[in-house]
Amino acid sequence: MFSRIREYLVLKNYQYEVTTSLYMLEPWEKALFNSLVIVGLGLLSYTTVFYLPEQLTYVATRFAEYISFY
């Protein structure tokens, strides 16, 4: 069971490295790139959690106003 999960994770890591061309970088370059990816995903998650509900409310209000005119 654990070996299948490990094989799956190794395969996904390989696919990630090949897709983003990380396989040809040195370890410190991989770490830097992966750090930037993690920071970017963290910022995206933060803005999604804190700003998306407000924006959806705004869009829904504007949409309701638009429909009420017709």
TrEMBL record:
| Pfam families linked to this entry | SPT_ssu-like
**Assigned GO CC terms:** endoplasmic reticulum membrane; serine palmitoyltransferase complex
Q: Where does it live in the cell? A: Endoplasmic reticulum membrane
A single GO molecular-function term is: serine C-palmitoyltransferase activity
Q: List where the protein spans the membrane.
A: 31-52
Query: Which of UniProt's keywords are assigned here?
Result: Endoplasmic reticulum, Lipid metabolism, Membrane, Transferase, Transmembrane, Transmembrane helix
Q: In which pathway does it act?
A: Lipid metabolism
The record's listing under InterPro entries reads:
Ser_palmitoyltrfase_ssu-like, SPT_small_subunit
Q: Which biological process terms from the Gene Ontology are attached to this UniProt entry?
A: ceramide biosynthetic process
Membrane topology, as annotated, equals: Multi-pass membrane protein
| UniProt family annotation | Belongs to the SPTSS family. SPTSSA subfamily.
| Matching PANTHER family | SERINE PALMITOYLTRANSFERASE SMALL SUBUNIT A
Q: What name has this protein been given in UniProt?
A: Small subunit of serine palmitoyltransferase-like protein
Source species of the chain: Gigaspora margarita
